[in-house]
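Page 42, continued from yesterday. The earlier attempt failed because a stray header line got pasted into the input along with the sequence. Redoing it now with the clean sequence only.
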Amino acid sequence: MSTSPSPLLATNQSSIPRTYRKNSASPFKTARFSPYKLPRHSSFFSHLSGHPDAHPNPPPPAYNLPVVSDAPHFIHEGEEFVHTRHVKLDFELFRNGEQCTPSKEQSGAIMSLFPTCFKLSFAPPFLILACRKLPAKPWPVTVAGMPLYLTTDGEASPMDCGRTGRGPKQFVEATIERWQTPNLDTFKKVFRLLDSLNAKIHCLQWIGWCFLALGASEPYDDWRTRLPWVINNIRIGYIFGEQTVHEKALRRKLPAGRVPDDEAYADLRPGVMVTSKMLSHDTDLMTTSGVCLQSASGKKYITVAKHGFPGGVGDQVLHPNRDGRVIAEVSKVFGKTDIALAELANIHYSRETFSAPDALVSAFRSLLDTTQLRVGDFIYMDTPYNGRCEGTLINVEVLRNPSNEPADDTEYVIGVFGFFGNGADTLFDGCCGGVIWNSDYDVLGQFRFQQAGAGNLCYCPTFETLRDLGYTIADS
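This time it went through. Structure tokens are written below.
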């Protein structure tokens, strides 16, 4: 077995000095090996029944495999067990921006990595493995390029794909293709179509192969017979109820041994600890600094989490804490996105990331066009509480505010949900405002909250509004 570099490794920057955090460590490695060297089993797979609701994109089958051992770990090098964040196999299930259904042989190879695994399910965009005994944490985020969800419940799922309507097919004047993220105009057309059916939908999500439509309550008793089951030959599921989004309760104490990076940096960059001058000294509300942007007029700002600066416009941004120096002043806030811009003082603020053991210093390139996002793409974040952490993009969301007004008169908030693993030790307290970027160092947006529920998905508002207003990534 060999260990390969992380996709974050910048091969053209060997001469650039590394800029490490003062307090940061990661237990992860990236492992690459051949699953076909693992023991094969004479008893292969039994096919389970599919989804009861017929639709044009049926979910793939699940497979069973006999328990082969009670070993608590899943990968090892010699006598030393290795925790990995991305398990790379001789095959990839995420290719050219599309997820692929694993074959029986590929499913067997994946299940063999987890000795007590008895069921594999492909529920796009997740690969779900049910095990009789879970391995030691932290667990991988992906296997063969697919987001991995581990559980002991053979019927568990990290996300709800909604209930299918039984109404007639509907069409909008747009091209919608699987695994290609629709643009905002297409989302608006879908909203208008559903408005014409009085569906009372306030949020649409795209998960690569289907739409999810969210509403506060069922619009009428017979909605399943009236609302479409597909739009432009793409399945649409419906989720009704106020419980569709809840923010997870914040942890007030760090686990034993975790040391946040509260150092005062002379050379500032994305991912340092910041707080508000308006807060009292006994208030513990720390957030993470974002990326440096330049307006069309040439002014320099950094992005911050709006809720971390209760004074609003005019509130001062301090680094690293209430006893630190003023580095910026909040000057603009953007609706319900939780994004704010703070105009920088006369200081240097780099567009470069911190270094990591498997990643050299790299500069952010640009604000990413939302339509370039693909469900399954790797995403990254670097905060004072976690250092560098990696996840995958799960869906793209368009939230309409308010939900009771015509679509053309409302504000649309574009965000994404990411998955950083359901068995990782990643923390999210203090991470609000942290930059989210992709493998090309293009910036998607900033971290906002972790959603309560089985999948613990993380919501990140995008910087699409800032991009449309002409802001660009810069140094100061």
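Notes: Residues 1-16, 24-82, 244-256 have pLDDT under 50 and may be disordered.
Reminder to self: strip header lines before submitting.
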